[in-house]
Amino acid sequence: MSKFSEDVLTIVKQIPSGKVVSYGQVALLAGHPRAARQVGCILHFHGEEVPWWRVINNAGRISTKCIEHNADLQREFLREEEVEVGEDLSVDIAFYRWYFPETGS
DNA sequence: CGAATGACCAAGC
DNA sequence: GGCTTGGCCATTC
After folding, report:
1. For domain A3-96, which CATH number applies: 3.20.20.450, 1.10.10.10, 3.30.200.20, 2.40.50.140?
2. In terms of pTM, does the model score above 0.85?
């Protein structure tokens, strides 16, 4: 577990229910604006201690390009938090996007 | 240290 | 708006 990983997890934990963020934003807060890939790689590795399901790509969709991560489960979690998810795992990111108070972006 | 990998991002079609 | 190409970066071998 590197410092980068801990920082990413700490940031993700701050995401409120019913909101979602992109990997790029988390990477930015972690101090590595271009390391969005590592963020996703780290998230699929732990359990419910961190709301990883609230983290999606900048296109507003749940990526399924890698190993069989529970994309279907993630959709269930989001809908439980009043976040509408399309059949193709698409989310209205423009409306549900959460902006971290620290950056104010 | 060099090469390969991955839940990405931005630009081009 | 969706698919394809190239590029970034940290971690692992």
Report:
1. 1.10.10.10
2. yes
